Structures are given as structure tokens and as C-alpha cells.
Amino acid sequence: MNAIVEQRQQAQLRFQQGEQNIVVGKIENCPLPPEELASLNLNSPYVVEVFDDGLTATVIHLCINGRHYNLKRRRAEARVQNIDGETSFLNEVQRRQDLQALKDKASTAAAFKHIVTTLYADYRLGFILSPWIDGKPLCSFSREIFRQIFDTMFALEQVGLMEWDLCPGNILYDGRQIYLFDFGYMYRFDPLEHYNSDGLASPAFHAVERLETRNVFGYLLRYQDVMTANDQLALYRELKEVGLDIYTQKLIWLKQNFAHPSVIHWQTEIIERWEYALDNDRSLKNLFIAESFRSHCLDIQDDISGKSCTPMTLKRIDKVITMAATVYLQLQNNGALLFDNATLDQLALIKKYQDYRHLAQQYQLK
Ligand SMILES: Nc1ncnc2c1ncn2[C@@H]1O[C@H](COP(=O)(O)OP(=O)(O)O)[C@@H](O)[C@H]1O
Ligand SMILES: [Mg+2]
Question: Average pLDDT over the chain, rounded to whole?
Fold first, then answer.
């Protein structure tokens, strides 16, 4: 286990067991007394709808005096069975505190306009109150949408925050703007010294990779029967072009702020790899194959480790097995085999994901 991650987890577990509270926002922002919000019955006339399929919280859409709110209440027991899952509600309240301070400050407010406002949160009472966002989960992508997401990620990184879970359920879109509102897996890190909140241990993880892994490659897999290979590549090109633009700005920022040479080197290598790929369709296809495989493997790992699998996990596993069976050498040559996958030969790799398929069936969320 990574020492930086372990330190954070231990601190959060200690906080959880202690008495100290975190309260975000002013009590005047609460349409009802906090204790009442914490214990509000789901049959209350204020309740418009309840989303009870979340892994760590129950989300309640409220309408009080004509105003719409989102009341996110901690579950008695998180359905993600690992430490990060168990501490994700605490983590979210901690991040809400960081983010609301940035939104309240005139000099940083604009950079965080895609981050939902926290009206009030009380960790010990177990709730977070936000305005209701009148939007829908993202069901298509565009250059503008990629830009809003990556601009926000870059603004977050500059203040030392890394968002890991850009899954479809965590991004809403109102036809003009995207909104982020779930910060259960957003962690602090030092962007000038480290690649991400794992320190210097896992260069594979970064903002653009997070959107690809948790979201875009799943989307492309889901729609593989209705999108042609060219449509898929065109979308991937847009994503990479916007990503490249933001990462070029990030590299300048890293240099201006005297970032650690290994961080500058890492960022430069990503940029050069994408520039090369964007130069012609053949290289772009190679990168697409490598990164789709990488993303599916990373996402599968997350679901297996949290014992929180869905039919999509099975679909991703089938795709990984097919790719391992058909383009193994290409995957190996393009650096798509990460962590222990890098040590497995073709047969062992296929066997690993066949075994995962059995596990993923056992770990299906009810
Ligand atoms: N402020 C909000 N406005 C509108 N819908 C929201 C808001 N917050 C959450 N939701 C809806 O509730 C769902 C679950 O909320 P989320 O904060 O992601 O909980 P979880 O931690 O359980 O994933 C989201 O996918 C979204 O559809
Ligand atoms: Mg969520």
C-alpha cells in the first residue's frame, strides 16, 4: 500500500471515530433546522423524489417554499466495501469545505463555477445540502463539454485537488454547462511535487485519463453498435485535442512554478505522445486501442476492489478478453499493460480476466 494514501486513510478513519465535526455554510442557508433535515422522513411533503441507488448516500430532491434542493444523506453503511468507500462521505464533506471556500473567494469563484454550491453540510448530522441542479446525466460529448470538464480539472489541480471519479452519474449537463457535485473520491495532493494523490507511485492516473477511464471508454463501449469506428475515433480526437490544449497550459504553469523535474518530465511525455498520435490517424488508432484497454482494466480493478460490479463491468471484461486474445502484442508494444498486467503473458492475461468475470458476477450490486 502506498504510504501517502495510507496516511490519508488512517487520518480519515481516526476522524471518523472521533468527536470533531465539520460544518460548511451558514445556518441561514438551511430552509429547515439542520436536525430536521437530518431526520426528514421520506414521506414528507417536501420530498419530490428519492435516489436510493447511490453507493454511499441517499439523494433526496426537496422542494421547500418553491425552492429546489438536493439533500445528500450518509448511508448507515457504504455499499463500496473498501476504506475509500467507507470514508467517502467524510471525504466529501472535507472537500465541500475546501471547494466552498474557493467559490466564496472573488479571485477563484469563476474557475469553480462548474462545481455545485454547498449551502450547508454537517458531517456528524450526516448530510450535505446543495441547490438542485436542473440537468441530465451527460448523454453525449462535444469539444465544449470536454473543455468545461478539463478546465475545471486544471483549476482543481492548481489548488491541489484531484478528482478520481468522473463517472457518468457524477456529471450533470443542463444543455449549456456541466456540473460536478460528488466529491467522495476527490483528494488533496501537491501538484508541483506529485503526479496525483498517489504521489509519484502511479503515473498512469491524471485528469484526462480519469474521464476516459470512468466515462468516455465506457460510453464508447455502450454505443459500439451504433457508432462507427470512425465516429468513435473522431470523438476521441476531439477529447485529445482539448486535453492537449489544457495539458500544454498545465505544463507552462508547472514550469513557471518550479515543479519537480519528474512532474515536468511526466507531463511533457504525455503531451509528446498525444501530439504524435494526433499527427495521423494510424497513430491515433494505436493510442485509442492502448488507452481503451488501459481504461477498461483500471475501471474493472476499481469495481472488483470495491466489490461494486455492474453489467457494465462484465461488458468491459469481455472487451478486455477479446482484445487480449486478438491484439496482445500491440497492447504490449504501446504500453497498455499496466501494473501486474505488464508481467503476464498472453494466456495468463486472458486467464486473469476470465477469473475476474466470475468474481464480477458474484459482486454484482443488488
Ligand atoms: N445537486 C444535485 N442536483 C440534481 N441532481 C443531483 C444533485 N446531486 C446529486 N444528484 C443526482 O443524484 C445522483 C447521486 O448523487 P451523488 O452525489 O453522485 O451520490 P453518490 O455519492 O451516491 O454517487 C446523481 O447521479 C445525480 O443524478
Ligand atoms: Mg456519485
Answer: 96
